[in-house]
Amino acid sequence: NLSIKAVAEETYVISHHVHHGLAEQPGDPYNASYGGLYCFLADTNHQPISRDLSEKDYAQVSSMLDHTGVHRNSYAQYQKWGSICHPAWTTLHYAANWGFWYAVFFAIGGHALACALFGGAHVWSVGIRTFNYAGHGSGRDLRQAGIDFSTKDHSINQVWPGYVAGEWHNNHHLFPNGARSGFLPYQIDIPWYAIKALSTVGVVTSYRDYKAQFLDKHYRPYLEAVRNSEVEDVSEAA
């Protein structure tokens, strides 16, 4: 609720877990190797929750939304509605969120500002569907040595998404539950700066920062391998 609500939690969170588990494999809802349109239509074709989960599997899937604070269905309600969140609660949540933010923007700049910002949020919610296609090399392996260290998928670190959103995607695939994804000096990570600042005043009480692990397990070994390779090249030349 810190921004205009554009995507229902269950629509994004569950498919995000599936994507990380099956990146570039059949069943990945954002499989870039299947084309841009496949990724663009992921919310329509692949993100709805399976309607035939067992009670045990539903409990596991539902628990993935523990951190979101949404009102979740019981197993019996899930069997009726085929969703984790009851449609009525989802609708009320959207109405309350939109009503609050429209009122705030209207108070600042009237209908013109409110409509402009809501229109911008809509453009973002549609445009972001294309990100994972580009963020996985548009179906090609565009990873670069010394920049992209995840070997389990074709995700890449891109400067523009990194600077404007802290979305260093290859780093994110290395440590998907980390609060920080910008690890190298040039990898600006604005959301991480906000989280860190909020933690200093007690608003954020816990987070995971994997920068030290990234440097120890990936970046320093890479630099060492490069140095050893250069030494070998010099020795052979001599």
Overview of this protein structure:
The structure is a single chain. By secondary structure, this protein is mostly helical. 57% of the residues lie in helices and 0% in strands. The chain contains 11 helices and no strands. The chain has helices at 9-21, 36-40, 42-45, 55-63, 75-81, 87-127, 131-135, 159-165, 169-174, 190-200, 211-237. The termini are far apart.
Number of helices: 11
Q: Name the assembly state.
A: single chain
Written as H for each helix and E for each strand, in order along the chain, the element string is HHHHHHHHHHH
CA radius of gyration is 21 Å
Return residue spans where pLDDT drops below 50 for at least 5 consecutive residues: none
Kindly summarize this structure in a few lines.
By secondary structure, the protein is mainly alpha-helical. It has helices spanning 9-21, 36-40, 42-45, 55-63, 75-81, 87-127, 131-135, 159-165, 169-174, 190-200, 211-237.
Could you outline the blueprint of secondary structure elements for this entry?
Elements: H1 9-21, H2 36-40, H3 42-45, H4 55-63, H5 75-81, H6 87-127, H7 131-135, H8 159-165, H9 169-174, H10 190-200, H11 211-237
